[in-house]
């Protein structure tokens, strides 16, 4: 019996010490991790709206309102998770960066930031999180694919497997239609939110 009690006390002490150490590690690393995440986010913002001087959190963001706008638009597999207002050097609003999480990826969720000027022009997209198949879906991270959305002013995009031309047409990745569909729908979700919640429109 004494041996059982002794072993129990030892395990309890080990658990308490380990828990305390983990807590300390968390407190020590929490701020640097948050800073790194914020820097990565700002880098993504600058990638998709390079002409902006600064970015501010969109104070009126409402996740429920965003979800309703997407549902009304027929996009139920995406979530708008964050919105930033892009400012020019004079401090005036020049557009938005809309961050979308797509639940349609082949390898899991895909998180994308979409830069949209106030006139509805998509200035660029950047993958924040993606784990698609190497050599197939991961090609969505390459400029050859992402740049198809760049500097396009359309109401929505659609992917094609036939090489059909048009500003709204995106060439599907060979062997990765699911990824292509997920990314295209995510960008369209950002446009729907921009058009119906932020009050923007094409040729505003």
Features:
two-stranded parallel sheet, alpha+beta, membrane, 40% helix, 204 residues, flavoprotein, five-stranded antiparallel sheet
> In terms of structural class, how would the helical and strand content be classed?
alpha+beta
Radius of gyration computed on alpha carbons:
22 Å
Strand line-up in the sheet with most strands: 1-2-3-4-5
pLDDT < 50 stretches: none
Sheet having the most strands: 5 strands, antiparallel
Oligomer: single chain
Mean pLDDT, all residues: 90
The count of β-strands is 7
InterPro entries: FMN-bd, Ion_transpt_RnfG/RsxG
Keywords: Cell membrane, Electron transport, Flavoprotein, FMN, Membrane, Phosphoprotein, Translocase, Transmembrane, Transmembrane helix, Transport
Protein name: Ion-translocating oxidoreductase complex subunit G
Subcellular location: Cell membrane
